[in-house]
Amino acid sequence: ISLINLTRSLLATLSFVSNCLLSALDSHCAQGWLLYGDHCYHFETEAVKNWQNAEAHCNSEQGHLVSFHSQEELSFITGLIQQSPTGISLWMGGHDSVTEGGWEWTDGSPFRYIRWNAGNPDNYDGEDCLSILVSNGYWNDDKCENKRGYICKRRGEKSCSNCC
Ligand SMILES: [Ca+2]
Ligand SMILES: [Ca+2]
């Protein structure tokens, strides 16, 4: 094998591998999930569950109830949920059931970005679960036993099926 041919085949291999890696870096989502950034979001606006069962359902799909970390991420969601057949609000992954007033996300991410609706959180009659008002995207601490639609979030898939 000549040096030129060897170089050519090395370059071809390198280019194949780099194309493969580049396409593998693009996140994508399974059917029924919407991509934003590196994550996929699923809106359950037809069946209702209490907060715990909604989180369990997201877990069964390798995700958690949604967490929010920026105005941009929230705007992406509120742009899609101006109304919902399941009612005025949808479950998110926030709760303060461990420590009253100590809010955390079920996906373990830091609870920093907040967008409380006026007068909330009020812990009215012991509200420990977080819901988002579909009309304006603001948040309410809500009764965990209420049955609501919900939003699941999980990491986008980075594997590529066709290219490698
Ligand atoms: Ca509470
Ligand atoms: Ca409340």
Distance between the termini: 26 Å
- Count of individual helical segments: 3
* Overall morphology: elongated
Q: Which cofactors or ions or other ligands sit in this model?
A: calcium ion
Q: Can you tell me the CATH architecture?
A: Roll
CATH topology: Mannose-Binding Protein A, Chain A
The low-confidence runs, each spanning 5 or more residues with pLDDT under 50, are none
Task: Give the % helix.
Answer: 25-40%
Taken in chain order, the helices and strands follow as HEEHEHEEEEE
Kindly report the average pLDDT value.
91
- Sheet of most strands: 8 strands, mixed
CATH class: Alpha Beta
List the quaternary state of the chains.
Answer: single chain
Number of strands: 8
Rounded radius of gyration (Å): 21 Å
Structural class: alpha+beta
CATH homologous superfamily heading: Mannose-Binding Protein A, subunit A
Strand content: 25-35%
